[in-house]
């Protein structure tokens, strides 16, 4: 076939392409970054642990010499072996589904995605193991087919560290794989980083467009169309680990664990009224906005306590609220580890998800005083609020919304796949964790159930109010969707990936 480059990706016409096909490179085309080292580091940390994370970092000099000076394929073989050998395929898939999408999305080339998404048949080719990238590409980038490096798996379902024939998918191997997929048909458009030559899959395409090597993420990405956001993601690391940042993390972890233990013991042993005053000296920061309500008066016989309705960012939300108000306010929870219950400086009460029984328990608690609830039912890291359960609206007219958000620099203090007992430790391992808390005014009586509003109307109103305060987006997503996506339990997601992705645009009804 007489090959001819059609220019840069800016020259690609995207109108009326629904009947055409496109084949795009992943690294360097759909992603700004071509080097996949950081993503293997994430899999090593999240699917295996700190020891493999350290071992992979030690192998970086060998990888770099091979990758940049000898053979890109040889360098990738080193990464695949060190990062994946001995891991269950299910663990690699889990990291690819729950952890990597956030970091891939941050590195996504929006211009390439804009062109890619305008075609009817969308295929991605990648040198990374397909098991690592397929979930992100199909669920978020909307690829129909993914061609990637295939890893060998033993009879116990564990990766051997080697790759199947024909090896790491580069150069001619990519071309042969695309040819095998399309057969006698010819892909309409090819997208890639370098000027294609005879060895490239782009030589098979009717048109081929180059993503310039000097194209980097900049402010133009902010105005280009983007795929639906990654709302749910898991993993402990906040930032993509480069070799330097990974080294700093390894050096910091022993100090961070000591700091976390010291902070937790201080919160456990100090009086609740003293913690807010001592937190700056322990490296924490709590920013409070709005007027703090007074404690419910016990002199009002028969009058229930105030129900604080909070956004749910980490396990510590009710604890932070109690620290600010300088009194131990009980919190109701759905799932919390025994260790977290033991270390909690406030009373916690488990709910059963049996509506009538939980309603009776909450009413009983409110008769004794104030109470904290998080009606989302689970945490969400991104600037979205999940659907609010309406149960709280049925049980009290004294509702005080509290908008809570937090900032951390190294580790997330929540998990869906890991051991929840480590959540407070990872949160307090951050050098300077920060909480921002905004107290809103009590919901007017005319907007409560006693005034004739339905529980769903009240719940949706509170959700919108808190979202507006934080600058977040309201969604119809629930705990079930979160755990189905991240952990593969507590329900299943429809085979259509658009089912849950479309939910993020759902607004609570008026």
UniProtKB/TrEMBL annotation:
Residues 306-407 form the Phospholipid/glycerol acyltransferase domain. InterPro entries: HAD_RAM2/GPAT1-8, Plipid/glycerol_acylTrfase. It comes from the Eukaryota. One of its GO terms (biological process) is cutin biosynthetic process. The keyword Ribonucleoprotein does not apply. It is a multi-pass membrane protein. It is found in: Membrane. GO terms for molecular function: glycerol-3-phosphate 2-O-acyltransferase activity; phosphatase activity. Belongs to the GPAT/DAPAT family. PANTHER family: ANCIENT UBIQUITOUS PROTEIN, GLYCEROL-3-PHOSPHATE ACYLTRANSFERASE 7. This is Phospholipid/glycerol acyltransferase domain-containing protein. It comes from Taxus chinensis.
């Amino acid at each position: 076939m007489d090959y001819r480059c059609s220019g840069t990706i800016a020259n690609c016409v995207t109108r009326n392409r629904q009947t055409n096909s496109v084949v795009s490179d992943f690294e360097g085309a759909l992603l700004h970054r071509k080097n996949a080292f950081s993503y293997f580091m994430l899999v090593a940390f999240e699917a295996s642990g700190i020891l493999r994370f350290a071992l992979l970092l030690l192998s970086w000099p060998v990888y770099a010499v091979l990758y940049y000076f000898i053979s890109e394929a040889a360098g990738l073989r080193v990464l695949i072996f060190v990062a994946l050998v001995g891991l269950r395929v299910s663990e690699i898939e889990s990291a690819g589904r729950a952890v990597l999408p956030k970091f891939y999305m941050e590195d996504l080339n929006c211009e390439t995605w804009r062109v890619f998404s305008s075609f009817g048949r969308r295929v991605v080719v990648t040198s990374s193991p397909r098991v690592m990238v397929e979930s992100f590409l199909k669920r978020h980038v909307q690829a129909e087919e993914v061609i990637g490096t295939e890893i060998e798996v033993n009879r116990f379902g564990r990766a051997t560290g080697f790759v199947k024939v024909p090896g790491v998918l580069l150069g001619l191997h990519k071309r042969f794989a695309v040819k095998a997929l399309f057969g006698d048909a010819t892909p309409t458009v090819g997208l890639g980083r370098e000027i294609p030559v005879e060895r490239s899959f782009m030589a098979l395409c009717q048109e081929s467009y180059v993503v310039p090597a000097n194209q980097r993420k900049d402010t133009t990405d902010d105005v280009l169309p983007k795929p639906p956001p990654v709302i749910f993601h898991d993993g402990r690391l906040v930032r993509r680990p480069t070799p330097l940042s990974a080294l700093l993390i390894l050096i910091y972890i022993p100090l961070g664990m000591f700091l976390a233990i010291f902070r937790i013991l201080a919160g456990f042993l100090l009086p609740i009224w003293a913690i807010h005053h001592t937190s700056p000296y322990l490296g924490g920061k709590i920013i409070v906005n709005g007027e703090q309500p007074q404690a419910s008066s016990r002199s009002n016989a028969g009058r229930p306590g105030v129900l604080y309705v909070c956004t749910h960012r980490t396990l510590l939300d009710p604890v932070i609220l109690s620290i600010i108000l300088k009194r131990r306010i009980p919190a109701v929870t759905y799932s919390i580890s025994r260790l977290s219950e033991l270390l909690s400086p406030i009373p916690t009460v488990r709910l059963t998800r049996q509506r009538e029984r939980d309603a009776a328990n909450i009413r009983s608690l409110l008769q004794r005083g104030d109470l904290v609830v998080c009606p989302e039912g689970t945490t969400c890291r991104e600037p979205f609020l999940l659907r609010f359960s309406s149960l709280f609206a049925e049980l009290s007219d004294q509702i005080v919304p509290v908008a809570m958000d937090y900032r951390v620099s190294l580790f997330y203090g929540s998990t869906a796949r890991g051991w929840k007992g480590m959540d407070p430790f990872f949160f307090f391992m951050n050098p300077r964790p920060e909480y921002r808390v905004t107290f809103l005014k009590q919901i007017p009586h005319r907007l409560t159930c006693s005034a004739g509003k339905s529980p769903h109307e009240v719940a949706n109103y509170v959700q919108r109010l808190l979202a507006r305060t934080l600058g977040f987006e309201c969604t119809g997503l629930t705990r079930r969707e979160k755990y189905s996506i991240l952990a593969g339990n507590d329900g299943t997601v429809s085979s259509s990936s658009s089912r849950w992705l479309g939910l993020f645009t759902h607004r609570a009804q008026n």
